[in-house]
Amino acid sequence: xxSTIMKLVISGVTIFITxxxxxxxxxxxRLYKQVGDLFKHFFGINTYKKMKGxxxxxxxxxxxxxxxxxQDYDEKHKIGIIDYKEYFGAAIELNSIQFYMxxxxxxxxxxxxxxxxxKTVAPEDLGAIYKFARPMVFDNYIDNECKKREEILESVRHxxxxxxxxxxxxxxxxxxxQNLEQMNVDSEFPVFKDHMYLAFFSTNVKSLIQVIxxxxxTIESGSGGALEPKILDRKQTAIFLKSFYTTNFDExxxxxxxxxxxxxxxxxxxxxxxxxxxxxxxxxxxxxxxSDYPIAVPNAWGRAFFSVPGAxxxxxxxxxxxxxxxxxxxx
Length: 331
Prior knowledge:
Largest sheet: 7 strands, antiparallel
Shape: globular
Order of helices and strands: HEEHEEEEHEHHEHEHHEEEHEH
Structural class: alpha+beta
Mean pLDDT: 86
Number of strands: 13
Strand content: 15-25%
């Protein structure tokens, strides 16, 4: 009697726990996966730091890539190739435009251009759209204002301009220089600008470069130059990769770096994983994922989340054949 009842109770509890572990409280996330993540958090490594050597706590272990290569893609330009060991990646920067301000016909023309460009991506390859914000560099604007100031002073020295006439012009130039310096990347309150990127990933470097070239030229001609596609070289690719981890950096630093030092510059100093957030160099971030997409959407449907201030956005895509597309739509 008693042993049989205990066996039935234990069996019932076991069945209940097993069934509960396979329950889903979020779309696509089973309870056993969440329990496993909880154990990994409490008993695994949660904090990584930049250090020398091969320690498991070295933040370098979090990087999915091992270096940035550089190859010629035409007679004058080079392209930065991200080496992920088993595959490769490269990126194009695009000019941000206010899509909602365009007429519908113009919007459709841009969409058709991107559609034509993306058709070159092989089914086994991957594409992604990224949005990052980083501080603007106003050095060129400051230099231009400094040149204007020198031209005014030079005209006073040569007697072609009266000092009384030059004084208000000098004050304007000085005010502009001061304002630009207060907004520059190394100021206390820099101005941030959103940067849009297209990235493509392939197991073959040659086919990757071909895709990057075709996508860039297609977007350039199809948008009439408005999107200003720019294929990133090695150091521009380093800036792109560092934008994954932080907005608090000076991109001018990369100019004088040796290529072998780029990875060390890219990686954050410290990363700590929490239960529902990650802290990178003292700043906490939360990650959100879109679990599904509507079947029919208006133009620029993703603008709502791509326009979130300070958010880092990634939208991955790959081509599928018509039969697979129809199956997805029929679900």
